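Quick entry between incubations.
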Amino acid sequence: DAKTTQPNSMESNEEEPVHLPCNHSTISGTDYIHWYRQLPSQGPEYVIHGLTSNVNNRMASLAIAEDRKSSTLILHRATLRDAAVYYCILRDGGTSGTYKYIFGTGTRLKVLA
Amino acid sequence: DGGITQSPKYLFRKEGQNVTLSCEQNLNHDAMYWYRQDPGQGLRLIYYSQIVNDFQKGDIAEGYSVSREKKESFPLTVTSAQKNPTAFYLCASSIAGSYYGYTFGSGTRLTVV
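Done. Structure below.
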């Protein structure tokens, strides 16, 4: 199973950009990179996903390294509401079309006012 | 609005009793999943189902049982065989075989008293 490695915690000042790194050196050619975030006592929320090219949506941007062995989630202007645990996950499903996520412990982001 | 509903939000159980957690979705998603989360930990997969009347064990299925009689519903029973059932339980759904993400419920916090 392809695994990801993330720092346990990071801090950011409010209104500043945040770059959350993720290493996935064993990623396979068809694995998508997904990011979720989880606020306290809530279910995880989808943030963004990508395969090879950088991706942008209203929540964040995803920068994927050329060799795909790492990626970075970018929050352009952190707010207090962005304080959460961020999970970087690889699709794990083989060829059957069935896939299930394997969650690590994620990165706990603290946003300082 | 479409979504996934877990009930109850909080549940207390006496040791030795079975308890069933409800998960209902109106997203017309084929696949549904149950995860367990312990304090400060990531999510661990208990069971998942890709179609009605079919389900597979995840990484920590011992002491749990599920059913999938309807597409919309995927209840989880925590049996007395589960040695340490106190945890936060999360249900999710997705389009089977899709590269898009999961939709999670808001979770059920189970406490054994």
